[in-house]
Design brief:
There is one protein chain. The protein has six helices and ten strands. It has about 240 residues and is of the alpha/beta class. It has one domain: 3-Layer(aba) Sandwich (Rossmann fold), CATH 3.40.50. The strands form two sheets. It has an eight-stranded mixed sheet with strand order 3-2-1-4-5-8-9-10. Helix 3 links the parallel strand 1 and strand 2. Helix 3 packs parallel to helix 4. The chain starts with 8 loop residues before the first helix and ends in a 7-residue tail after the last strand. Keywords: Isomerase, Metal-binding, NAD, NADP, Nucleotide-binding, Potassium. One of its GO terms (cellular component) is mitochondrion. It catalyses: (6R)-NADPHX = (6S)-NADPHX; (6R)-NADHX = (6S)-NADHX.
Length: about 240
Amino acid sequence: MADVRYLGQSESAALDDELMGPCGFCLEQLMELAGLSVAQAVQDLSQQSSMQIVVLCGPGNNGGDGLVAARHLFHFGHDVTVVYPKVGKKEWYSSLVTQLKESNIPVEESLPSSLASADVIIDALFGFSFSGAVRPPYDAILGELRRIQTSSGQPKKPTIVAVDAPSGWDVEKGPQGNGDAVIPDVLVSLTAPKKCAEHFYGRHYLGGRFVPSSIQRKYRLELPAYPGASQCVELSTGKKGA
């Protein structure tokens, strides 16, 4: 099989439009499947039966994926806290928050004091459609993530997992050296990797086992085979696509 193809911003948006148009999917359905993919990738990282996981969620679809992942990770047996400073405008986001609260999963507006001691931090702040400067309160959140990453006095640091596109990265060019970028340990690309992933060399997963064969052919995705019934597959580290 040829290398998995990496998509630019406009092509990624067009693919999503086709999934939710001619292909018959709805946003809520895709978000549920994407969030489950993220949760399974995180589960694959460790043999620990219970991890301390903090999920950082933005106001858009990327944040919605994070909310779904948080619910699944809770049901996988982990201790999960969600940080959700601004609830998305669509009613569906409020429903996702209700689902979390009904399971007594903490949903906070600000970072917990225990953030640095978490086993895993999931960055679900911004997706492939994000552009421009990172604004409050998210700039402070990314600043704290960078501080944790660069702290020399912390023997065990959290594993940072980015959803689809690491926050602060240009979706096509990767980290731009403007001080906003967080360099994650793990990236979970959704549907197909975005071009920014060409600049990522950690553990790289692909999730979103729902792409119709017609879309795979049209966009020449060359998606890998998913193992068994898994919703994610690990890609070769540091391998660039076409």
